[in-house]
Amino acid sequence: MVDAESVKNPQGVDNKIPIIIVLLSGAFVAILNQTLLATALPHIMKDLDLDETVAQWLQSIFMLVNGIMIPITAFLIEKFTTRVLFLSAMGLFGLGTLLCAIAPSFVFLMAGRILQAAGAGIVMPLMQTIFFLIFPIEKRGSAMGMFGLVIAFAPAIGPTLSGWLVEQLPWRSLFYVVLPIVIIDIILAYFLMKNVTKLTNPRVDVLSIILSTLGFGGLLYGFSTAGSNSWTSSHVIISMIVGVIAMVWFILRQLRLETPILEFRVFKNKLFTLTTVLGMLAFMSLIGAAVVLPLLMQTMLGFSALESGLMLLPGAIIQGIMNPITGRLFDKFGARWLAIIGLIIIIGTTFMFTNLDDQTTFTYLATVNAVRMFGIAMVMMPVTTAGLNQLSNDLIPHGTAMNNTMRQIAGAIGTALMVTLMANHAIPEQGVNGMIHGVNVSFVVAGILAIAGLILAFFIRDKDRRKQPVGNR
Protein backbone atom coordinates (compact mmCIF):
# COMPACT_ATOMS: atom_id res chain seq x y z
CA MET A 1 0.00 0.00 0.00
CA VAL A 2 0.98 3.64 -0.43
CA ASP A 3 1.62 5.44 2.83
CA ALA A 4 -0.31 8.62 3.68
CA GLU A 5 2.72 10.89 3.55
CA SER A 6 3.65 9.82 0.02
CA VAL A 7 0.08 10.51 -1.13
CA LYS A 8 0.16 13.92 0.55
CA ASN A 9 3.56 14.79 -0.89
CA PRO A 10 4.25 12.52 -3.89
CA GLN A 11 7.85 11.96 -4.96
CA GLY A 12 9.09 14.16 -2.09
CA VAL A 13 8.69 17.43 -4.05
CA ASP A 14 8.05 20.18 -1.49
CA ASN A 15 7.99 23.23 -3.77
CA LYS A 16 6.21 22.41 -6.99
CA ILE A 17 5.95 25.98 -8.36
CA PRO A 18 9.44 26.16 -9.98
CA ILE A 19 8.91 22.80 -11.69
CA ILE A 20 5.45 23.87 -12.87
CA ILE A 21 6.83 27.11 -14.35
CA VAL A 22 9.58 25.24 -16.22
CA LEU A 23 7.19 22.60 -17.57
CA LEU A 24 4.44 25.02 -18.62
CA SER A 25 6.97 27.27 -20.38
CA GLY A 26 8.36 24.32 -22.32
CA ALA A 27 4.88 23.09 -23.25
CA PHE A 28 3.81 26.59 -24.29
CA VAL A 29 6.62 27.12 -26.80
CA ALA A 30 6.28 23.56 -28.11
CA ILE A 31 2.56 24.01 -28.87
CA LEU A 32 2.95 27.62 -30.02
CA ASN A 33 5.56 26.46 -32.51
CA GLN A 34 3.10 23.99 -34.09
CA THR A 35 0.66 26.76 -35.01
CA LEU A 36 3.10 29.52 -35.96
CA LEU A 37 4.03 28.28 -39.40
CA ALA A 38 0.64 27.95 -41.12
CA THR A 39 0.23 31.69 -41.76
CA ALA A 40 3.87 32.08 -42.77
CA LEU A 41 3.97 29.32 -45.42
CA PRO A 42 3.22 31.65 -48.39
CA HIS A 43 6.14 33.89 -47.37
CA ILE A 44 8.48 30.89 -46.98
CA MET A 45 7.37 29.54 -50.39
CA LYS A 46 8.17 32.85 -52.05
CA ASP A 47 11.52 33.32 -50.28
CA LEU A 48 12.80 29.76 -50.85
CA ASP A 49 11.07 29.29 -54.24
CA LEU A 50 8.92 26.32 -53.14
CA ASP A 51 5.60 25.07 -54.43
CA GLU A 52 2.70 24.37 -52.05
CA THR A 53 3.09 20.57 -51.93
CA VAL A 54 6.75 20.85 -50.90
CA ALA A 55 6.19 23.66 -48.38
CA GLN A 56 3.34 21.74 -46.73
CA TRP A 57 5.87 19.17 -45.60
CA LEU A 58 7.15 21.72 -43.07
CA GLN A 59 3.82 21.19 -41.27
CA SER A 60 3.40 17.49 -42.05
CA ILE A 61 6.90 16.46 -40.94
CA PHE A 62 6.40 18.12 -37.55
CA MET A 63 3.17 16.20 -36.98
CA LEU A 64 4.72 12.92 -38.16
CA VAL A 65 7.92 13.10 -36.08
CA ASN A 66 5.93 14.35 -33.08
CA GLY A 67 3.59 11.38 -33.41
CA ILE A 68 6.50 8.95 -33.79
CA MET A 69 8.34 10.26 -30.71
CA ILE A 70 5.37 10.29 -28.31
CA PRO A 71 4.92 6.47 -28.11
CA ILE A 72 8.55 5.89 -27.12
CA THR A 73 8.59 8.55 -24.39
CA ALA A 74 7.38 5.98 -21.81
CA PHE A 75 10.58 4.02 -22.50
CA LEU A 76 12.72 7.19 -22.37
CA ILE A 77 11.11 8.27 -19.06
CA GLU A 78 12.09 4.93 -17.50
CA LYS A 79 15.57 5.00 -19.05
CA PHE A 80 16.72 8.57 -18.25
CA THR A 81 16.32 10.91 -15.28
CA THR A 82 13.70 13.66 -15.42
CA ARG A 83 16.32 16.43 -15.62
CA VAL A 84 18.37 14.76 -18.35
CA LEU A 85 15.31 13.95 -20.46
CA PHE A 86 13.69 17.39 -20.15
CA LEU A 87 16.96 19.24 -20.81
CA SER A 88 17.68 16.96 -23.79
CA ALA A 89 14.18 17.46 -25.22
CA MET A 90 14.32 21.25 -24.85
CA GLY A 91 17.89 21.22 -26.16
CA LEU A 92 16.74 19.38 -29.31
CA PHE A 93 13.85 21.81 -29.66
CA GLY A 94 16.14 24.82 -29.19
CA LEU A 95 18.72 23.50 -31.68
CA GLY A 96 15.94 22.90 -34.21
CA THR A 97 14.58 26.42 -33.65
CA LEU A 98 18.02 27.95 -34.22
CA LEU A 99 18.51 25.87 -37.38
CA CYS A 100 15.13 27.05 -38.72
CA ALA A 101 15.96 30.67 -37.95
CA ILE A 102 19.25 30.63 -39.91
CA ALA A 103 18.23 28.04 -42.54
CA PRO A 104 19.68 29.01 -45.95
CA SER A 105 17.57 26.41 -47.77
CA PHE A 106 14.52 24.14 -47.51
CA VAL A 107 16.66 21.14 -46.48
CA PHE A 108 18.02 22.97 -43.41
CA LEU A 109 14.53 24.23 -42.55
CA MET A 110 13.17 20.67 -42.72
CA ALA A 111 16.02 19.41 -40.52
CA GLY A 112 15.22 22.11 -37.98
CA ARG A 113 11.53 21.16 -37.96
CA ILE A 114 12.44 17.49 -37.39
CA LEU A 115 14.58 18.41 -34.37
CA GLN A 116 11.83 20.67 -33.03
CA ALA A 117 9.24 17.91 -33.40
CA ALA A 118 11.47 15.33 -31.70
CA GLY A 119 11.89 17.61 -28.69
CA ALA A 120 8.20 18.58 -28.55
CA GLY A 121 7.14 14.93 -28.82
CA ILE A 122 9.06 14.16 -25.63
CA VAL A 123 8.08 17.28 -23.68
CA MET A 124 4.29 16.88 -23.78
CA PRO A 125 3.87 13.36 -22.31
CA LEU A 126 6.82 13.95 -19.95
CA MET A 127 5.06 17.02 -18.58
CA GLN A 128 1.82 15.11 -17.99
CA THR A 129 3.73 12.28 -16.30
CA ILE A 130 5.54 14.67 -13.95
CA PHE A 131 2.28 16.44 -13.04
CA PHE A 132 0.68 13.12 -12.14
CA LEU A 133 3.67 12.11 -10.02
CA ILE A 134 4.15 15.35 -8.06
CA PHE A 135 0.47 16.05 -7.35
CA PRO A 136 -1.68 13.91 -5.04
CA ILE A 137 -4.66 12.29 -6.73
CA GLU A 138 -7.17 14.77 -5.30
CA LYS A 139 -5.27 17.72 -6.87
CA ARG A 140 -4.57 16.27 -10.32
CA GLY A 141 -7.64 17.82 -11.92
CA SER A 142 -6.42 21.31 -11.00
CA ALA A 143 -2.91 20.45 -12.24
CA MET A 144 -4.23 19.21 -15.58
CA GLY A 145 -6.37 22.35 -15.75
CA MET A 146 -3.18 24.43 -15.76
CA PHE A 147 -1.83 22.20 -18.51
CA GLY A 148 -5.07 22.70 -20.43
CA LEU A 149 -4.77 26.46 -20.05
CA VAL A 150 -1.46 26.36 -21.90
CA ILE A 151 -2.55 24.00 -24.67
CA ALA A 152 -5.60 26.17 -25.34
CA PHE A 153 -3.92 29.59 -25.34
CA ALA A 154 -0.83 28.68 -27.37
CA PRO A 155 -2.78 27.67 -30.51
CA ALA A 156 -5.02 30.71 -30.06
CA ILE A 157 -2.07 33.09 -30.06
CA GLY A 158 -0.07 31.28 -32.75
CA PRO A 159 -1.88 32.18 -36.00
CA THR A 160 -2.55 35.79 -34.95
CA LEU A 161 1.05 36.37 -33.78
CA SER A 162 2.40 34.68 -36.90
CA GLY A 163 0.16 36.76 -39.19
CA TRP A 164 1.28 40.00 -37.56
CA LEU A 165 5.00 39.10 -37.53
CA VAL A 166 5.23 38.03 -41.18
CA GLU A 167 3.51 41.25 -42.26
CA GLN A 168 6.04 43.34 -40.33
CA LEU A 169 9.24 41.25 -40.43
CA PRO A 170 10.85 38.37 -42.38
CA TRP A 171 9.42 34.88 -41.67
CA ARG A 172 12.59 33.94 -39.76
CA SER A 173 11.39 36.27 -36.98
CA LEU A 174 8.93 33.54 -35.97
CA PHE A 175 11.80 31.36 -34.81
CA TYR A 176 13.80 34.23 -33.31
CA VAL A 177 10.77 35.04 -31.11
CA VAL A 178 10.58 31.43 -29.83
CA LEU A 179 14.34 30.91 -29.33
CA PRO A 180 14.91 33.23 -26.30
CA ILE A 181 11.98 31.59 -24.45
CA VAL A 182 13.51 28.15 -25.09
CA ILE A 183 16.97 29.28 -23.89
CA ILE A 184 15.55 30.84 -20.70
CA ASP A 185 13.51 27.69 -20.04
CA ILE A 186 16.60 25.48 -20.44
CA ILE A 187 18.56 27.66 -17.98
CA LEU A 188 15.70 27.57 -15.46
CA ALA A 189 15.32 23.80 -15.90
CA TYR A 190 19.04 23.27 -15.23
CA PHE A 191 18.70 24.88 -11.80
CA LEU A 192 15.08 24.10 -10.86
CA MET A 193 14.10 20.75 -12.37
CA LYS A 194 14.16 17.77 -9.99
CA ASN A 195 14.24 14.06 -10.73
CA VAL A 196 10.78 12.70 -9.97
CA THR A 197 10.35 9.75 -12.34
CA LYS A 198 11.34 6.20 -11.41
CA LEU A 199 14.18 4.62 -13.40
CA THR A 200 13.79 0.95 -14.32
CA ASN A 201 16.55 0.97 -16.97
CA PRO A 202 14.62 -1.04 -19.60
CA ARG A 203 16.53 -2.78 -22.37
CA VAL A 204 16.60 -1.01 -25.72
CA ASP A 205 14.56 -3.10 -28.16
CA VAL A 206 15.56 -1.77 -31.56
CA LEU A 207 12.91 -3.77 -33.44
CA SER A 208 10.14 -2.31 -31.24
CA ILE A 209 11.32 1.25 -31.95
CA ILE A 210 11.43 0.52 -35.72
CA LEU A 211 7.95 -1.04 -35.63
CA SER A 212 6.59 1.85 -33.56
CA THR A 213 8.01 4.37 -36.04
CA LEU A 214 6.60 2.53 -39.07
CA GLY A 215 3.27 1.79 -37.39
CA PHE A 216 2.40 5.18 -35.93
CA GLY A 217 4.19 7.06 -38.72
CA GLY A 218 2.42 5.10 -41.46
CA LEU A 219 -1.03 5.56 -39.95
CA LEU A 220 -0.51 9.27 -39.21
CA TYR A 221 0.84 9.95 -42.70
CA GLY A 222 -1.95 7.95 -44.34
CA PHE A 223 -4.75 9.71 -42.49
CA SER A 224 -3.19 13.18 -42.70
CA THR A 225 -2.75 12.99 -46.49
CA ALA A 226 -6.05 11.19 -47.20
CA GLY A 227 -7.99 14.40 -46.50
CA SER A 228 -6.15 16.44 -49.13
CA ASN A 229 -5.62 13.54 -51.56
CA SER A 230 -7.76 10.61 -52.61
CA TRP A 231 -8.20 7.75 -50.13
CA THR A 232 -7.48 5.43 -53.08
CA SER A 233 -4.16 7.07 -54.05
CA SER A 234 -1.22 4.66 -53.98
CA HIS A 235 0.87 6.47 -51.34
CA VAL A 236 -2.10 6.68 -48.95
CA ILE A 237 -2.93 2.97 -49.39
CA ILE A 238 0.71 1.87 -49.08
CA SER A 239 1.36 3.97 -45.96
CA MET A 240 -1.84 2.67 -44.33
CA ILE A 241 -0.99 -0.98 -45.12
CA VAL A 242 2.57 -0.56 -43.79
CA GLY A 243 1.19 1.25 -40.73
CA VAL A 244 -1.37 -1.45 -39.92
CA ILE A 245 1.06 -4.37 -40.39
CA ALA A 246 3.79 -2.68 -38.34
CA MET A 247 1.28 -1.66 -35.64
CA VAL A 248 -0.11 -5.18 -35.23
CA TRP A 249 3.44 -6.59 -35.08
CA PHE A 250 4.44 -3.86 -32.59
CA ILE A 251 1.47 -4.57 -30.28
CA LEU A 252 2.03 -8.33 -30.33
CA ARG A 253 5.73 -7.82 -29.57
CA GLN A 254 5.00 -5.47 -26.65
CA LEU A 255 2.66 -8.03 -25.11
CA ARG A 256 5.45 -10.64 -25.20
CA LEU A 257 8.29 -8.45 -23.87
CA GLU A 258 9.00 -8.41 -20.14
CA THR A 259 9.70 -4.64 -20.27
CA PRO A 260 7.83 -3.28 -23.31
CA ILE A 261 8.60 0.05 -24.97
CA LEU A 262 4.90 0.94 -24.66
CA GLU A 263 2.69 -0.98 -22.24
CA PHE A 264 -0.58 -1.88 -24.00
CA ARG A 265 -1.82 -3.62 -20.84
CA VAL A 266 -2.99 -0.21 -19.62
CA PHE A 267 -6.09 -0.95 -21.72
CA LYS A 268 -6.96 -3.75 -19.30
CA ASN A 269 -8.30 -0.95 -17.11
CA LYS A 270 -11.84 -0.38 -18.42
CA LEU A 271 -12.12 3.24 -17.28
CA PHE A 272 -8.77 4.17 -18.85
CA THR A 273 -9.90 2.59 -22.14
CA LEU A 274 -13.30 4.29 -21.97
CA THR A 275 -11.88 7.75 -21.25
CA THR A 276 -9.20 7.37 -23.94
CA VAL A 277 -11.86 6.59 -26.57
CA LEU A 278 -14.01 9.46 -25.26
CA GLY A 279 -11.04 11.84 -25.44
CA MET A 280 -10.33 10.70 -29.00
CA LEU A 281 -13.93 11.40 -30.09
CA ALA A 282 -13.84 14.87 -28.50
CA PHE A 283 -10.47 15.65 -30.09
CA MET A 284 -11.66 14.46 -33.54
CA SER A 285 -14.54 16.89 -33.25
CA LEU A 286 -12.27 19.70 -32.02
CA ILE A 287 -9.49 19.39 -34.60
CA GLY A 288 -11.84 18.67 -37.51
CA ALA A 289 -13.76 21.89 -36.88
CA ALA A 290 -10.52 23.84 -36.45
CA VAL A 291 -9.55 22.82 -40.00
CA VAL A 292 -12.95 22.99 -41.72
CA LEU A 293 -14.15 26.36 -40.36
CA PRO A 294 -11.15 28.39 -41.68
CA LEU A 295 -11.54 26.63 -45.06
CA LEU A 296 -15.22 27.59 -45.09
CA MET A 297 -14.46 31.21 -44.22
CA GLN A 298 -11.58 31.72 -46.65
CA THR A 299 -12.63 29.69 -49.71
CA MET A 300 -16.44 30.02 -49.55
CA LEU A 301 -17.42 33.08 -47.51
CA GLY A 302 -14.63 35.45 -48.63
CA PHE A 303 -13.01 36.17 -45.26
CA SER A 304 -9.25 36.71 -44.91
CA ALA A 305 -6.83 34.33 -43.15
CA LEU A 306 -6.53 36.81 -40.28
CA GLU A 307 -10.33 37.01 -39.92
CA SER A 308 -10.63 33.23 -39.83
CA GLY A 309 -7.98 33.15 -37.09
CA LEU A 310 -9.82 35.84 -35.14
CA MET A 311 -13.05 33.82 -35.45
CA LEU A 312 -11.42 30.92 -33.59
CA LEU A 313 -9.85 33.18 -30.95
CA PRO A 314 -12.85 33.66 -28.57
CA GLY A 315 -13.38 29.90 -28.41
CA ALA A 316 -9.73 29.25 -27.64
CA ILE A 317 -9.74 31.93 -24.92
CA ILE A 318 -12.89 30.46 -23.35
CA GLN A 319 -11.38 26.96 -23.45
CA GLY A 320 -8.20 28.30 -21.82
CA ILE A 321 -10.11 30.06 -19.04
CA MET A 322 -12.40 27.08 -18.47
CA ASN A 323 -9.68 24.39 -18.24
CA PRO A 324 -8.47 25.36 -14.72
CA ILE A 325 -12.11 25.74 -13.62
CA THR A 326 -13.15 22.32 -14.94
CA GLY A 327 -9.99 20.91 -13.33
CA ARG A 328 -11.14 22.11 -9.92
CA LEU A 329 -14.68 20.87 -10.59
CA PHE A 330 -13.24 17.48 -11.50
CA ASP A 331 -11.35 17.29 -8.20
CA LYS A 332 -14.62 17.99 -6.38
CA PHE A 333 -17.23 16.09 -8.42
CA GLY A 334 -15.43 13.76 -10.86
CA ALA A 335 -15.61 13.53 -14.64
CA ARG A 336 -18.99 11.88 -15.32
CA TRP A 337 -21.38 14.83 -15.21
CA LEU A 338 -18.79 17.28 -16.55
CA ALA A 339 -18.40 15.05 -19.61
CA ILE A 340 -22.16 14.52 -20.03
CA ILE A 341 -22.98 18.25 -19.83
CA GLY A 342 -19.98 19.13 -22.02
CA LEU A 343 -20.97 16.63 -24.71
CA ILE A 344 -24.58 17.86 -24.74
CA ILE A 345 -23.19 21.36 -25.42
CA ILE A 346 -20.86 19.99 -28.12
CA ILE A 347 -23.73 18.11 -29.81
CA GLY A 348 -26.03 21.16 -29.80
CA THR A 349 -23.42 23.55 -31.19
CA THR A 350 -22.10 21.03 -33.73
CA PHE A 351 -25.58 20.65 -35.23
CA MET A 352 -25.83 24.46 -35.31
CA PHE A 353 -23.00 24.24 -37.87
CA THR A 354 -25.10 21.97 -40.14
CA ASN A 355 -27.30 24.76 -41.53
CA LEU A 356 -24.64 27.17 -42.81
CA ASP A 357 -25.09 29.14 -46.06
CA ASP A 358 -23.59 32.10 -47.89
CA GLN A 359 -25.34 34.51 -45.49
CA THR A 360 -23.68 33.04 -42.39
CA THR A 361 -22.00 35.83 -40.45
CA PHE A 362 -18.65 36.10 -38.68
CA THR A 363 -20.52 36.72 -35.40
CA TYR A 364 -22.57 33.53 -35.74
CA LEU A 365 -19.51 31.37 -36.44
CA ALA A 366 -17.46 32.93 -33.64
CA THR A 367 -20.28 32.70 -31.07
CA VAL A 368 -21.29 29.11 -31.80
CA ASN A 369 -17.63 28.01 -31.89
CA ALA A 370 -16.98 29.76 -28.55
CA VAL A 371 -19.88 27.91 -26.87
CA ARG A 372 -18.70 24.68 -28.51
CA MET A 373 -15.21 25.14 -27.03
CA PHE A 374 -16.81 25.73 -23.63
CA GLY A 375 -18.26 22.22 -23.96
CA ILE A 376 -14.95 20.73 -25.12
CA ALA A 377 -13.21 22.22 -22.06
CA MET A 378 -15.68 20.28 -19.88
CA VAL A 379 -14.74 17.01 -21.58
CA MET A 380 -11.08 16.86 -22.64
CA MET A 381 -9.02 17.35 -19.47
CA PRO A 382 -11.49 15.79 -16.98
CA VAL A 383 -11.83 12.51 -18.91
CA THR A 384 -8.05 12.35 -19.50
CA THR A 385 -7.38 12.86 -15.78
CA ALA A 386 -10.08 10.36 -14.77
CA GLY A 387 -8.49 7.66 -16.94
CA LEU A 388 -4.89 8.30 -15.87
CA ASN A 389 -5.93 8.36 -12.21
CA GLN A 390 -6.76 4.66 -12.54
CA LEU A 391 -3.13 3.74 -13.24
CA SER A 392 -0.43 3.03 -10.68
CA ASN A 393 2.58 5.35 -10.72
CA ASP A 394 4.76 2.89 -12.64
CA LEU A 395 2.17 2.80 -15.46
CA ILE A 396 1.54 6.55 -15.66
CA PRO A 397 4.39 7.18 -18.20
CA HIS A 398 2.81 4.53 -20.45
CA GLY A 399 -0.67 5.94 -19.88
CA THR A 400 0.32 9.49 -20.80
CA ALA A 401 2.26 8.32 -23.86
CA MET A 402 -0.68 6.17 -24.97
CA ASN A 403 -3.17 8.95 -24.35
CA ASN A 404 -1.17 11.51 -26.34
CA THR A 405 -0.55 9.02 -29.16
CA MET A 406 -4.22 8.11 -29.48
CA ARG A 407 -5.13 11.79 -29.55
CA GLN A 408 -2.63 12.42 -32.36
CA ILE A 409 -4.14 9.60 -34.39
CA ALA A 410 -7.67 10.81 -33.60
CA GLY A 411 -6.75 14.31 -34.79
CA ALA A 412 -5.41 12.96 -38.08
CA ILE A 413 -8.51 10.78 -38.58
CA GLY A 414 -10.89 13.61 -37.65
CA THR A 415 -9.25 16.05 -40.05
CA ALA A 416 -9.16 13.53 -42.89
CA LEU A 417 -12.77 12.48 -42.30
CA MET A 418 -14.23 15.99 -42.18
CA VAL A 419 -12.18 17.34 -45.09
CA THR A 420 -13.08 14.29 -47.21
CA LEU A 421 -16.78 14.62 -46.38
CA MET A 422 -16.65 18.32 -47.14
CA ALA A 423 -15.06 17.69 -50.55
CA ASN A 424 -17.18 14.66 -51.53
CA HIS A 425 -20.53 16.24 -50.65
CA ALA A 426 -19.86 19.65 -52.17
CA ILE A 427 -22.06 20.50 -55.19
CA PRO A 428 -19.97 23.02 -57.21
CA GLU A 429 -22.64 23.50 -59.89
CA GLN A 430 -24.93 25.02 -57.23
CA GLY A 431 -22.45 27.79 -56.45
CA VAL A 432 -21.32 28.83 -52.98
CA ASN A 433 -24.23 27.19 -51.16
CA GLY A 434 -23.51 23.97 -53.03
CA MET A 435 -19.92 24.06 -51.76
CA ILE A 436 -21.11 24.87 -48.22
CA HIS A 437 -23.38 21.81 -48.36
CA GLY A 438 -20.23 19.68 -48.00
CA VAL A 439 -19.33 21.58 -44.80
CA ASN A 440 -22.82 20.99 -43.40
CA VAL A 441 -22.56 17.24 -44.07
CA SER A 442 -19.15 17.06 -42.35
CA PHE A 443 -20.64 18.63 -39.22
CA VAL A 444 -23.55 16.17 -39.27
CA VAL A 445 -21.00 13.35 -38.99
CA ALA A 446 -19.10 15.28 -36.28
CA GLY A 447 -22.37 15.56 -34.38
CA ILE A 448 -22.96 11.79 -34.66
CA LEU A 449 -19.46 11.19 -33.23
CA ALA A 450 -20.30 13.51 -30.33
CA ILE A 451 -23.53 11.56 -29.69
CA ALA A 452 -21.46 8.35 -29.51
CA GLY A 453 -19.24 10.12 -26.97
CA LEU A 454 -22.28 11.14 -24.90
CA ILE A 455 -23.46 7.53 -24.71
CA LEU A 456 -19.99 6.45 -23.52
CA ALA A 457 -19.89 9.24 -20.90
CA PHE A 458 -22.78 7.62 -18.98
CA PHE A 459 -20.50 4.63 -18.29
CA ILE A 460 -17.91 6.74 -16.40
CA ARG A 461 -17.84 5.91 -12.70
CA ASP A 462 -16.45 8.47 -10.25
CA LYS A 463 -16.84 6.58 -6.97
CA ASP A 464 -13.16 5.53 -6.86
CA ARG A 465 -11.63 8.78 -8.09
CA ARG A 466 -10.00 9.65 -4.73
CA LYS A 467 -8.54 6.21 -4.22
CA GLN A 468 -4.79 6.13 -4.78
CA PRO A 469 -4.16 3.40 -7.38
CA VAL A 470 -1.71 0.72 -6.37
CA GLY A 471 -0.16 -2.23 -8.12
CA ASN A 472 2.43 -3.00 -10.72
CA ARG A 473 2.43 -4.20 -14.27
Structure, explained:
With 473 residues, the chain is mainly alpha-helical. It has 3 domains: 1-198, MFS general substrate transporter like domains (Growth Hormone, Chain: A); 203-260; 269-468, Growth Hormone, Chain: A (Up-down Bundle). It has 17 helices and no strands. Mean pLDDT is 83; it is low at 1-10 and 465-473. It is found in: Cell membrane. Keywords: Cell membrane, Membrane, Transmembrane, Transmembrane helix, Transport. Pfam families: MFS_1.
Features:
single chain; 473 residues; Growth Hormone, Chain: A; 3 domains; globular
* CATH class category name of the largest domain: Mainly Alpha
Give the tally of β-strands. 0
Per CATH, the superfamily of the largest domain is: MFS general substrate transporter like domains
Identify the overall geometry: globular
Secondary-structure element series? HHHHHHHHHHHHHHHHH
Percent in helix = over 70%
Main location: membrane
Pfam families: MFS_1
Keywords: Cell membrane, Membrane, Transmembrane, Transmembrane helix, Transport
Membrane topology: Multi-pass membrane protein
